[in-house]
Amino acid sequence: MCGIIGYIGHRDAWPIVTRGLKKMEYRGYDSAGIAIVNDVGFNLYKKAGKVSSLEQFTDGKDKSGKIAIGHTRWATHGEPSDCNSHPHSSNDKRLHIIHNGIIENYAVLKETLLTRGHQFDSDTDTEVLIHLIEEIQNMEQTDLLEAVRLALNEVIGAYAIVILDRGNPDQLIAARKGSPLVIGIGADEHFIASDVTPIVEYVKNVIYLNDNEIALIKTNQLSIKQRNNVVQTPLVHELELKLEELEKGGFDDFMLKEIFEQPRSLIDCMRGRIYPKEGKVELGGIKHYADKLTQIDRIIIVACGTSWHAGLVGEYLIEKFAQVSVEVEYASEFRYRHPIIRKDDLLIAISQSGETADTIAAIEIAKNKGATIFGICNVVGASIPRSTDAGVYTHAGPEIGVASTKAFTTQVAILTLIAFYIAQQKGILAPAELTVLLNELNSIPSKIQRVLAENEHIKDIAFEIKDAKSCLYLGRGSGFPVALEGALKLKEISYIHAEGYPAAEMKHGPIALIDEEMPVIFIATKNSSYEKVISNIREVKARKGKIIAIVTEGDIHVKEIADYYIEIPDTDEAFMPLIATVPLQLLAYHMATIRGCNVDQPRNLAKSVTVE
Ligand code: M6R
Fold first, then answer.
1. What is the DSSP annotation of 230-256?
2. What is the reported pLDDT for 519?
3. Using CA positions, which residue lies closest to atom 7 of ligand 1?
């Protein structure tokens, strides 16, 4: 959504904040702003566009100061513009706020404030909040911390906020509910940010603020209390993240780097969890539920976007190996239905960021009904892993590109391990059978490496179909979610319309779309539905569709009919999605870059969707 950063300490704040905002642009990039205080005064700079536009705008202006707050925005209330950019200011221009989230009751609050003489400069919900804080402080004649606490008690919605008082420039106040906020602890300095990416180069120790907590932050003092005034003892975490993980490492884009990182991220994801020789899977994060898992007879998977596609692959795997019935739900739909959730159900929430608002809401619903909740997340310490009963981290490393790539493959790997783990606990899979499966799973990273070696070939195909107006992705079985994921990758970064469909459903509608202009991408690997997919390919061929097929190495039949093909190494049918997704990621990547699109920051998108 939005990225926020604050600094208070002995260093020049401007470079820390601008650099930090650039690192968080994946969270939002339609406008940026910084408020900074120095000994002689205060400056507030805001600009529509990226952080680089703000830098150009402030060139030659006074940017000195040791305390500052900054924001990079993904618009929710009010179009991207200079005046809607954060920081927003109180009526008397003394208080300044940066905010990630949504104040849902802002309209009601604004009406009251208008009657009390407040004037607003923007269309945002955030400006209403800082006016409310100012109003309460004036009315109650209290300090800022108490005014913030009282104001937040009146607010409905989600927020991570940092407030700077230009009249009291030795402190910042931060608070969170529903949106992430982390505080970095240095020597006589503090950093506050939406996530650790902008602060990892300065500090090793961080505190993740919990929901409903408010922090008073000075250079050498940090105190935290809950909104109900109960003082909290902060839990300090040591960061394990390495700075290089946040750099492009010689690649043109984060997305390409992350696609190429998949063999490594899968190895990291499986390390210490699979024991092929012993035919055993160990998942420390859920081991306390080992017995309970043998009794579970229904699993509900909730997720959004790419994570939902991973869930669909998980459905095939869990039903096949663990013999448990699985339902996969869009979190955004699930939360507003009247879902039947029983106490003995298991809900698995999948989320790369661990901050997706709809997924968090779905968890709350299932929690209230007494279900057991597991999380599959990548970002350590995010809201979802902190609100679930147990879970498994994907350990994919930071994913900066807005389009999910290594998050997907590692989520699928974890779902595979959960399927095996349940099967093992139930005695469905004997160690000897698991040995065979785990040996094959262990070989997937090197097989993906072989697909990555086809990068130039895939680029050539991308060049041939780059002008397509629309593309169809077809697959059967677990090839269907792979098709959905391939289509999502293409549309989100190249802006070409694309649809994923079960290959057999094509005849029930989409076949009408097919003509010589329409590239149709088939997942046509050797598996139980291979022959049937070939029939579907022939049907498209008969209507002059352009066929691009993902085939198994050594295939003869599909190659004969396809216009273009990409070979992937043979594997057990269960692991095909892990490999077959990779050429589709590369195809989308090249089509987008050939068309001049910014793949890391596609238009209108943000990395984590922390509002519904
Ligand atoms: O962080 P999450 O996995 O919860 O995010 C869910 C979706 O917003 C996300 O998967 C989105 O669809 C991808 N970035 C698309 O590539």
1. -EE-PPPEE----GGGGS-TT-SSHHH
2. 96
3. 305
Instruction: Tell me how far the alpha carbon of residue 609 lies from the centroid of ligand 1, in angstroms.
Output: 8
Which pairing describes strands 95-103 and 157-165: parallel, antiparallel, or unpaired? antiparallel
Query: When comparing pLDDT for 512 and 520, which is higher?
Result: 520
| Short-list 346, 394, 395, CA closest to 366 | 346
Instruction: Give all domains of the chain, ordered by start, each with its CATH number.
Output: 3-245 (3.60.20.10), 251-442 (3.40.50.10490), 452-601 (3.40.50.10490)
Angle at 374 between CA 371 and CA 380, to 5 degrees: 145
For 371-417, give the secondary structure using H, E and C.
CEEEEEECCCCCHHHHHCCEEEECCCCCCCCCCCCHHHHHHHHHHHH
Cα 464 to Cα 33: distance, rounded to the nearest angstrom: 42
Average pLDDT over residues 53-70: 96
CA separation, residue 441 to residues 234, 279, 310, 369, 527 (Å): 41, 12, 17, 36, 17
Name the percent of the chain lying above pLDDT 70: 100
The residues, any chain, with a CB within 8 Å of residue 56's CB and separated by 6 or more, are none
306 CA closest ligand 1 atom index: 10
Distance 487 CA to ligand 1 centre (A): 14
**pLDDT tens string 220-248:** 999 999 999 999 998 999 988 777 788 88
Query: What average pLDDT does this structure show over 8-25?
Result: 96
Cα 308 to ligand 1 centre (Å): 8
Measured from the Cα of 608, ligand 1's closest atom is: 1
Span 147-161, pLDDT tens digits:
999 999 999 998 999
pLDDT of res. 27? 84
CA distance 126 to 101: 9
Query: What lines the ligand 1 site, CB under 6 Å?
Result: 304-307, 351-353, 356, 359, 402-404, 488, 492, 608-609
- Smallest CA-to-CA distance from 401 within 496, 265, 552 is with 265
Dist. CA 296 → ligand 1 center (Å)? 28
Q: How many Cβ atoms from other residues are within 10 Å of residue 480's Cβ?
A: 25
Note the pLDDT tens digit of each residue in 394-440.
999 999 999 999 999 999 999 999 999 999 999 999 999 999 999 99
> Pairing relation of β-strands 157-165 and 172-177?
antiparallel
CA-closest residue to ligand 1 atom 10: 306
Would you state the pLDDT for residue 607?
Answer: 78
Type of residue numbered 386: R
Q: Mean pLDDT over all residues of the chain?
A: 95
Strands (E), 156-241: 157-165, 172-177, 182-186, 189-193, 205-208, 213-218, 221-226, 231-232, 237-238
| Residue 610 confidence (pLDDT) above 80 | no
Residue 16 carries which side chain, given as an amino acid letter?
A: I
Active site positions, annotated: 2, 607
- pLDDT-derived band at 382 (thresholds 50, 70, 90) equals confident
Confidence of residue 29 (pLDDT cuts 50, 70, 90): confident
CA distance 423 to 201: 43
Nearest to 339 by CA among 308, 313, 300, 295: 300
